[in-house]
């Protein structure tokens, strides 16, 4: 076996598309009705005003990463994909990548808003806000999610937000994760597959996004597609870790021809552009209807294009003198990328409309991997779940569970055991000339882009899990 095969434990993956599968009320009720009133988990208040509440903390705070030398691991990996490198568990966070991509759904209310709007440009504004909000949880999240095992799954049903989601690790080499979310009311379907490539460039780790995301607004007969921006974690060797996202995200409405082009700006000189997002919405005749602007870490606004340009010109006049003074005191640092100071909040152009604002993180977030409240709940194993979930669900992964509970030695041992079990299974399939068969997704063509992706075949919520592999 080659070194590449030996250390290639599935990284991240996602790229699927499919048509809407009708939601069965009966299957939903079978899927997710848990009585949590008899037990309180970490910070969980089971019911409040009739709305189900989820835990707001983890069982144990995170461990310090300061005692581990990253350089001793990464010094031979410059320019290589990190998916082929075994990293100490201390650099992980206690979530699988399948759970990490589920965080796209944190601001589902924006999709519901888009479904309710009669105007296509207004719907595009809501979809653009959702696309930005979907990456907002990455702010300060410097821990690496666990690589999903081949055949690993994750499901999430949020009745109060009106959706359910299922995901599956459909490929190990290369790693690909496919997901499918649907409205319980039949309003939308959201699906895709993502397989970012992680590369180390001396001081920084860059994640290159791969795969197309598709959102279908069923009652409007509309489909929107886009891909995520690049993400870079700075100072993985020396200095304080910090994150920036950059690149152009193009959201296309394949039904109307409307398009939204969003520019996620790199920090630039003195980090004046850090976290900023700026773009515009145009119709099929290329007429610009509005400008979208803000920060992916904070909020997004929409305003008339002419008003925005006039505001930018007035801002530039005031910044010229300030920039000259800053250039005189600037200095280079070859050892680490300077940690940017917190910049002022978004300067709101008069006449703007607020599209989205990020939810505040819990006060103890920094002690718990900088998780949002939503992320805090994703690995929660509620009473009644064990009898209902698929045995491949990543809530049952012993290494993630041990890390969440603060048992780092056990987590490391379990991670090594699972990776070795996966390698042994791959050897056995090769010996018997057997091909891996996915369970809930299959390769197909995205009808809107024409590209190949993993499409949900349905049936997961029928709860027939008898033939699933024993991966844990």
Structure summary:
The chain is of the alpha+beta class and 472 residues long. The protein has helices at 3-7, 25-31, 71-74, 97-102, 109-116, 120-133, 305-329, 373-377, 398-404, 408-431; strands at 47-48, 51-52, 92-96, 144-146, 153-158, 163-172, 175-183, 188-194, 197-200, 205-208, 213-217, 222-226, 230-234, 242-253, 259-264, 276-282, 288-295, 299-303, 353-357, 441-445, 452-456.
Give structural notes:
The protein has helices at residues 3-7, 25-31, 71-74, 97-102, 109-116, 120-133, 305-329, 373-377, 398-404, 408-431, and strands at residues 47-48, 51-52, 92-96, 144-146, 153-158, 163-172, 175-183, 188-194, 197-200, 205-208, 213-217, 222-226, 230-234, 242-253, 259-264, 276-282, 288-295, 299-303, 353-357, 441-445, 452-456. The protein is α+β, with helices and mostly antiparallel strands and 472 residues long. Helix 5 (109-116) packs antiparallel against helix 6 and helix 9 (398-404) runs antiparallel to helix 10. The two termini are 22 Å apart. Residues 1-45 and 324-334 have low confidence and may be disordered.
